[in-house]
UniProtKB/TrEMBL annotation:
Keywords: Methyltransferase, Transferase. It comes from the Eukaryota. This is Demethylsterigmatocystin 6-O-methyltransferase. One of its GO terms (biological process) is methylation. The lineage of its organism: Eukaryota, Fungi, Dikarya, Ascomycota, Pezizomycotina. One of its GO terms (molecular function) is methyltransferase activity. InterPro entries: COMT_dimerisation, WH-like_DNA-bd_sf, WH_DNA-bd_sf. The keyword Methyltransferase applies. Residues 76-144 form the O-methyltransferase dimerisation domain. The keyword Magnesium does not apply.
Length: 155
């Protein structure tokens, strides 16, 4: 068997595509300016460029964690939140609510709900505003309406 000169352990801890970062930063900045200038295509191009930048910056180990732990459990976290009416309890008023308040409103164990809230914040569904305190995002506000939240139990 031929030896492999690549330092796999070092590679696992290094940015995935570091040489592309400067160009990707310029692309993100350019699409950001286009978005502010009301270019309708920029709203679609900007997140794509930002994702490309994220993927270039993350290490292979971080990508493994994202695929195995975060993304694989995102659907279950969202479906659970829909099932317990968490998004309705969180509301649409941008006022932060504590895990204790939400646990009472949803009749869910506060420790379990706290873990669910951390995961939902990590995937951008809600915003963590303080210790055990969260507020809604546009996404979670939309999920207070059944015609949108019903998509999750169907998948």
């Amino acid at each position: 068997m031929a030896s492999n000169p690549t330092d796999i352990e070092g590679l696992a801890l290094s940015s995935n595509l570091p040489d592309t970062v400067p160009d990707l930063l310029q692309t993100v900045a350019s699409h950001g300016k286009d978005l502010i200038a009301q270019d309708p295509e920029a709203r679609l191009k900007l997140p794509e460029a930002a994702r490309s930048l994220t993927y270039a910056l993350e290490t292979p180990r971080e990508a493994i964690i994202r695929h195995c732990w975060s993304e694989s459990t995102s659907y279950a976290a969202l479906e659970t939140a829909v099932d317990i009416n968490l998004f309705s309890a969180l509301g649409t008023d941008d006022k932060p609510k504590t895990v204790a308040e939400l646990a009472e409103a949803t009749s869910v164990d506060p420790i379990l709900l706290g873990r669910l809230m951390k995961h939902l914040a990590a995937i951008g569904t809600i915003s963590e505003t303080g210790y055990n305190e969260y507020c809604p995002t546009g996404f979670s506000k939309v999920l207070t309406v059944e015609r949108y939240s019903d998509a999750f139990p169907l998948i």
